[in-house]
Amino acid sequence: MKVQDPVDAKIVRVKQLSFSYGERVALKDIAFEIEKGELFGFLGPNGSGKSTLFHLLTSWIPCRKERIWLGEVDVGVHPAAARHKIGALFQSPSLDVQLTVRENLIFQGYFYGLHGTRLRKKVDELLEVLGVKDRASDRVKELSGGLKRRVEVAKCMLHDPEILIMDEPTVGMDPLARDQFWKTVQQLRDRTRVTTLVTSHLLQEMEQCDQIGILKEGQMLGVRSPDLWKKEFEGEETVRLELENPEPALDLLPQKWKENVIRLEQGMQITGSHLAREIPEVVSRLGENLVSITWSQPSLEDVFLKLNLDEDSSDQQLLTSSEFMKGVK
Asked: What pLDDT, on a 0 to 100 scale, did the predictor assign at position 2?
């Protein structure tokens, strides 16, 4: 078994990973590292390679050796040992809806070789941490979508994995259920220090990640904390004007504002730098024609749209895999 140098030891380490389905390239020279205990998010549009990457990390798809390490385990050489380190929650439901919550967990525990007092104690602990202890005797079919997902997380954690992998875990949930789900996941991390990898299309969920890797067309555009991603666009501000009559308003704007105007149905949007200082003057000029004005700094959504709508972004990678790997030899 390949053992990493202690200096480079990370809980997840991916080096120059590529994968193709026939002639279709799904991943191109992916590289990243994840610290123990981190919440790491993968962000990207459909077809960016997120699901393929997760399937490789979990050994669902066989991986070439010396490409993925989970701790000291080379996934390509020792896939069975790698699977002991992870709990995987994919998009497809995995519960037997005719069984109770507790029965689902007990049967899953048998697959992990757990039984008796040890298994019952672990089930009770996870039911409490994930907020479903009072529903332990209910059949799964009686639970809401959010509660079902919490039970699925409990299944993933029965064998005390070091890494929890979740692929679009909150798909189909309403905002309240999503909020409750993430609160329970945070409680689980606080209790167990499990390293968590997650994909999501919901950018507000990505805001709570420690690090985010953004994928596009199988390439990693970079790895940053949410704040550092947004800092890449520091200086860009957005002002939205809601107007009674947009036509005469354009001539009243400062010249700098006119250079980056997008017409909206009920007004206009302006993007630029140092806009906030000119807002009082603009409000005075527009007078009663102005219904409302909003100002914002770059959000994670702005970063995502900028990177994925810019046709040249693949040539302007913030951190290329080859650059990243220079420091990971």
From this structure: 46
Pairwise CA distance, residues 200 & 50, whole Å: 10
How many Cβ atoms sit within 10 Å of the Cβ of residue 307?
23
Contact at 8 Å (CB) between 133 and 187? no
pTM for this structure? Answer: 0.75
* Cβ within 8 Å of residue 198, ≥6 positions away: 39, 40, 41, 42, 165, 166, 167, 169, 205, 209
Nearest one of 126, 305, 114 to 216, comparing CA atoms:
305
Q: Which residues of the chain have pLDDT under 50?
A: 1-7, 311-329
At residue 31, the pLDDT reads: 95
Give pLDDT, residue 273: 83
Cα 278 to Cα 165: distance, rounded to the nearest angstrom: 47
Cβ neighbors of 190 (< 8 A, separation 6 or more) are none
For residue 117, the model assigns a pLDDT of 96
What domains are there in the chain, each with its CATH number?
Answer: 6-85+161-230+316-325 (3.40.50.300), 237-297 (3.30.70)
The 10 Å Cβ neighbour count of residue 1 is: 8
Give the pLDDT confidence score for residue 324 in this predicted structure. 36
SS3 67: coil
How many Cα neighbours within 13 Å face the side chain of 14? Answer: 21
Locate tokens 């309403």: which residue?
Answer: 174
SS3 of residue 118 by DSSP: helix
pLDDT of residue 95: 96
Through-space distance between the first and last CA atoms of the chain, rounded to whole angstroms: 18
